[in-house]
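dumping this here so i dont lose it
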């Protein structure tokens, strides 16, 4: 009988595909000397809520929980039934875990103070982005940001705990509910993606150390708003068309971002004449995706400055967003700056 000694993986991958999310989080705890397990548990709480939301999403048609809820949220948007359900699921998971002192949610008018003054973290979350697409079976997602509170542990939360720029995030991620369900997150040490195996009830590492292509051939923008764009944005889209790039726009932010992150591309939601600040929210959409993008080697900007450097001034603050492959973001910035200079010269 021939016996072979075990040979460790020599590929250079620190963690092989097949590692569970829970085990991966435990292995990475040493990255956070300031924490004593709370951040790891918080990530597990989010993963648990994501599993529940995944179940609710998959049975939405059978359980009659698709469609509109009949109320308008703080954004002026009609709430979907699953918006409300997802918000409840994440609120329960985050409040029961004990690590969080406050939550900012797209579905809530104000900050939710959990009355847990011993909690170290603040979570900003969009519980179910793109939920209006559920009725037509299109991918949707959850987006989250995690911040360490600024005020001393044991004291009531203050505005400074909430109004932090994206550069202060200690973790961020998204869950994509689609043909497969994926959780992608970063803690500032690279980006890793986990695919959910429903029969086992576990997320498994499927996309280790995600690196965004430096360039791409996909652009994602709502071209129905073209007449309201600035000259620089119009010139960039013309540039994309002249290069033969592919237009891919799902209308679910997480799905569009995820595709471009893996394949190379750029997502654009610029300001318009009617809404100069754009549509996307800074605290719980743009910041999280910008952190992930930068950790994967991509870029994110509002057209004039890095998204992660923006100091928030209001809870549901909106921002233009240009996010994706490094070369593509640089080109759109060049054309925006060029058009702004031309307009300034003309006004002189």
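and the seq i came up w/
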């Amino acid at each position: 009988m021939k016996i072979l000694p075990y040979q460790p993986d020599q590929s250079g991958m620190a963690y092989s595909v097949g590692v569970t999310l829970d085990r991966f989080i435990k292995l990475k705890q040493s990255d956070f000397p300031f924490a004593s397990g709370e951040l790891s548990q918080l990530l597990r709480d989010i993963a648990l809520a994501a599993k529940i939301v995944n179940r609710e999403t998959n049975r939405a048609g059978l359980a009659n929980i698709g469609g509109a809820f009949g109320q308008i949220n703080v954004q002026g948007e009609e709430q979907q039934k699953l918006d409300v359900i997802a918000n409840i699921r994440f609120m329960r998971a985050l409040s029961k875990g004990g690590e969080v002192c406050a939550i900012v949610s797209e579905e809530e008018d104000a900050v939710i103070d959990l009355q847990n003054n011993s909690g170290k973290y603040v979570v900003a979350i969009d519980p179910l982005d793109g939920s209006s697409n559920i009725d037509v079976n299109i991918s949707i997602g959850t987006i989250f940001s995690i911040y360490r509170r600024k005020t001393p542990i044991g004291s009531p939360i203050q505005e400074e705990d909430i109004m932090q720029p994206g550069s202060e995030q200690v973790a961020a991620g998204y869950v994509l509910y689609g043909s497969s369900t994926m959780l992608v997150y970063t803690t500032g040490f690279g980006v890793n993606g986990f695919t959910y195996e429903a029969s086992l009830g576990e997320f498994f590492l499927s996309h280790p150390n995600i690196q965004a292509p430096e360039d791409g051939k996909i652009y994602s923008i709502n071209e129905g708003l073209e007449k309201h764009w600035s000259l620089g944005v119009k010139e960039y889209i013309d540039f994309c068309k002249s290069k033969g790039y592919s237009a891919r726009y799902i209308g679910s932010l997480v799905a569009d971002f995820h595709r471009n992150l893996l394949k190379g591309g750029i997502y654009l939601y610029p300001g318009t004449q009617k809404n100069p600040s754009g549509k996307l929210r800074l605290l719980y959409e743009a910041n999280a995706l910008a952190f992930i993008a930068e950790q994967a080697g991509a870029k994110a900007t509002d057209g004039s400055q890095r998204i992660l450097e923006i100091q928030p001034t209001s809870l549901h603050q909106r921002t233009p967003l240009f996010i994706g492959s490094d070369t593509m973001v640089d080109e759109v910035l060049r054309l925006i700056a060029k058009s702004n200079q031309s307009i300034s010269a003309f006004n002189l």
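DSSP finds nine helices and 17 strands in the chain.
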